[in-house]
Design brief:
The complex is a heterodimer of chains A (about 400) and B (about 300).
Chain A lengths: L1 H19 L19 E8 L6 H20 L3 E3 L2 E11 L4 H13 L4 E3 L4 H13 L3 E4 L5 H5 L5 E3 L4 H14 L5 E6 L3 H16 L3 E7 L8 H10 L3 E5 L2 H13 L6 E3 L6 H7 L6 E5 L10 H12 L7 H18 L4 H9 L3 E3 L2 E3 L12 E7 L2 E8 L1
Helix pairs in contact in A: 2-12, 3-4, 6-7, 9-10, 12-13
Chain B lengths: L1 H34 L6 H22 L5 H28 L8 H22 L4 E2 L9 E3 L2 E3 L1 H23 L1 H11 L1 H6 L4 H27 L1 E2 L5 H14 L4 H25 L9 H15 L14
Antiparallel strand pairs in B: 1-4, 2-3
Helix pairs in contact in B: 1-5, 1-8, 1-9, 1-10, 2-3, 2-4, 2-8, 2-9, 3-8, 5-6, 5-8, 6-8, 9-10, 9-11, 10-11
Classes of the chains: A alpha/beta (about 400), B mainly alpha (about 300).
């Protein structure tokens, strides 16, 4: 009797284990055989849904889902005599390059026809190889690192400006608006932060500004007192930080707490309402750039903002409008290609000529946005105030 | 002289960090001294303390808007201490006591499991985002000589010193302290002398948890963020500090914690000068661990010598 009782949990475990094995649903992994099950077009979306960037990842995913719901409500996608509905497969890459590749493979195996993502450049770049190998088009709504499109893959695109433009704009702002003669540069050693800081440093040096300190941290750190104390001793006129808002916010707070009365210049990763919450008294130090137009100033922008708030109950962080446009671009490409073949869709995306929410969208041969713009913002009265746009 | 001012500021930064590490390290060291178990879930008890305090503070602020900042802080800390003590007693009873006499590996893995469990439950309860901590004590910079401090950081150093002193008094001068020392030396013989080892072990976990709760609230107050995995890195660093000072040794944990904080702050500040520009400030963690390796190679039982239970 005792042996029999002991065998039951083992039997249950074995059954569950065997149930997990077995034929997987048929899904193509390269080029042609990507026919969806039923009448569904699957579009993947990858962003960090947990960790420090979770609020930004959710923001992007909301934008994508809003687009999908609108397309489905308007009748779906007609190809030939079949009507398809769009389904967004949302995945969490935890802003980690390794997770990004795992999730990319998962989406490719699930038969997606395109991917909107990833959010972080550090995750987009390794994942792009997987998408390239499977001919799955990848449109990033927020990755700005130069390396992303410099790889020369046919499948990588982005609907935002890149860090070459952003770094130049930031450096020019430091010189023209902040009148800085000496600058301290800090980055978080991610593909995004490091790339952006390097561009800013290069442009500043070219224009004769003295970069008095170059410090590093990482994207999970919370204590910046040591490097800020070092920077304080070099007496810079401005502190440039390449990194996301979950580190930029505490850093601004610690700058304030150390009595360093120096403006802080950040990139698009720091340019969020969440930054203001995390930075507390140090928030007013920040001026930052965004790798796109100021959406609220665009014709359909204000309407999008209110639609988003009505549906999700929160404000847009930064790039929801861009993931929204990215979904529409993929769907437009499917319509133009007239088929569900991944390679055909990729070619159609490359030839995109689309008037989106974020402006007119066309891609150059590398996959960069043809008319990328950089908008500058400053924190005033507890919110991000628009300053100017450079094109 | 600018470089001396910077040095003093870095020392102050190190003291703040070190005080936090010392409080957490005490929890590790006391538990190890008494049951030979590295409680990997300790860092997550800290996290639960910080998040509980945040919820308590938010709730109290909504109910009693007029309460001043330090009042909210005290309410938050009390709530965190109560919850963490109960949590820690529960973990000890359910996860560790049944494995009291098992081979060393089993409770170790259980501790890791408890850590993952706590993180996931916290993620479910408090969400996945970084939550910002309200500014309860003033964060305005105050110049104390050449260093710039804030009220919060001064409170951390002061409170940690008071608590560590209190703990030393508890361990050396009270009956409970004597019972703890006796159980740490030899649990069976202590039992023969009329000490209830189970009660003493539970009390040790509870005291460690209370310290972690206070450390968690102060950690969140200094850095103004709290989230479900905030306990992992401080826990790891504090464990390193405990080993540095001599595991099982209470003054050792205090010294180790403060020393590690100083090493990290000074290391991050001076590492690129020391290495001739080869290593930048992003290697500050590496610096701390290299020091740990050096101490363990040259003096394996830690700086003040380890004190481990005699498993006769």
């Amino acid at each position: 009797m005792k042996t029999f009782l002991k065998a039951i949990p083992t039997a249950i475990t074995l059954t569950l284990f065997l149930a997990g094995c077995g034929p997987k649903p048929e899904a193509g992994t390269a080029g042609k055989a990507a026919a969806p099950a039923g009448d569904v077009i699957r579009i993947g979306h990858v962003a960090p849904l947990s960790g420090g960037d979770a609020h930004l990842g959710k923001d992007n995913e909301n934008g994508a889902r809003l687009a999908a719901d609108e397309i489905n409500a308007a009748g779906g996608v007609k190809i030939g005599d079949k009507t398809y509905r769009v389904e967004i497969l949302g995945e969490d890459d935890k802003a980690d390059p390794r997770e990004g590749t795992l999730v990319a493979q998962k989406l490719v195996d699930a038969g997606v026809l395109g991917v909107v993502g990833h959010l972080n450049s550090g995750s987009s770049i390794p994942a792009s190889k997987i998408y390239r190998d499977a001919d799955v088009v990848q449109i990033s709504p927020s990755s700005t690192a130069i390396k992303y499109t410099d790889q020369g893959f046919k499948t990588t695109f982005r609907v935002v400006a890149n860090d070459r433009q952003q770094g130049t704009a930031m450096a020019n702002y430091a010189i023209d608006a902040l009148k800085a003669k000496t600058v301290a540069v800090v980055d978080d050693r991610t593909a995004y932060g490091q790339g952006l800081a390097d561009v800013v440093e290069k442009v500043l040096k070219e224009k004769g500004v003295n970069v008095v300190a170059r410090e590093y941290t990482d994207n999970k750190a919370s204590d910046f007192n040591a490097i800020l104390t070092k920077i304080r001793a070099t007496k810079p006129d401005a502190i440039v930080y390449g990194g996301m808002d979950d580190t930029a916010g505490p850093m601004a707070k610690q700058i304030h707490q150390l009595g360093i009365k120096v403006p802080m210049l950040g990139g698009d990763g720091a340019c969020t309402p969440e930054f203001i919450k995390l930075a507390g008294d140090g928030a007013t130090l920040l001026s930052c750039s965004r790798a796109g137009e100021a959406v609220e100033k665009l014709p359909r922008g204000a309407q999008f903002m209110s639609k988003y708030k009505a549906k999700f109950g929160s404000e847009v962080q930064i790039y929801a409008p861009y993931s929204y446009d990215a979904v529409y671009i993929i769907v437009e490409a499917i319509r133009k290609a007239g088929s569900l073949d991944r390679a055909a869709i990729t070619a159609a995306v490359a030839a995109t000529d689309y008037d989106g929410l974020t402006g007119h969208i066309g891609f150059d041969p590398k996959g960069d946005l043809k008319s990328g713009a950089i908008s500058m913002f400053k924190v005033q009265d507890g919110q991000l105030t628009y300053l100017s746009t450079s094109r | 002289m600018a470089s001396f001012d910077t040095f003093l500021q870095q020392v102050f930064n190190g003291l703040v960090l070190g005080s936090l590490y010392a409080l957490i390290a005490l929890g590790y060291t006391m538990v190890y001294g008494i049951v030979n178990l590295i409680n990997f879930a300790h860092g997550d008890v800290l996290m639960v303390g910080a998040l509980t305090a945040l919820s308590a503070i938010t709730l109290t602020h909504a109910l009693v808007p007029g309460l001043p900042g330090w009042g909210l802080m005290i309410v938050g800390m009390l709530a965190a201490i109560v919850v963490c003590i109960l949590l820690s007693l529960l973990i000890e009873r359910v996860a560790y006591r049944p494995l009291r006499n098992a081979p060393r590996l089993a409770p170790l893995i259980t501790a890791i499991g408890v850590s993952i469990l706590l993180q996931t439950v916290a993620m479910i309860i408090w969400g996945r985002n970084h939550l910002s901590y309200p500014q309860l004590l003033s964060a305005d910079p105050i110049a104390v000589g050449p260093a710039t401090v804030t009220a919060t950081k001064l409170a951390v150093i002061f409170l940690s010193a008071v608590i560590m002193l209190g703990l030393l008094v508890l361990v050396q001068r009270t009956r409970l302290g004597r019972a703890m020392r006796a159980t740490a030396e030899n649990a069976r013989v202590a039992g023969l002398m009329g000490v209830n080892p189970n009660a003493v072990i539970a009390a040790t976990f509870a005291i460690g948890a209370a310290l972690a709760a206070v450390a968690g609230v102060m950690y969140a107050a200094v850095y103004s963020v709290a989230h479900f995995y905030m306990g992992f890195i401080p826990g790891l660093k504090a464990f390193t500090a405990a080993v540095l000072g001599g595991i099982g040794n209470i003054p050792g944990a205090m010294i180790g914690g403060i020393l590690l904080g100083l090493i990290e702050a000074l290391g991050a500040g001076y590492i690129d000068q020391l290495s001739g520009g080869v290593f930048g400030s992003n290697y500050q963690d590496v610096f701390a661990f290299i020091v740990l390796c050096a101490v363990l190679i040259l003096r394996p039982s830690g700086l003040l010598g380890e004190r481990v239970a005699d498993r006769a």
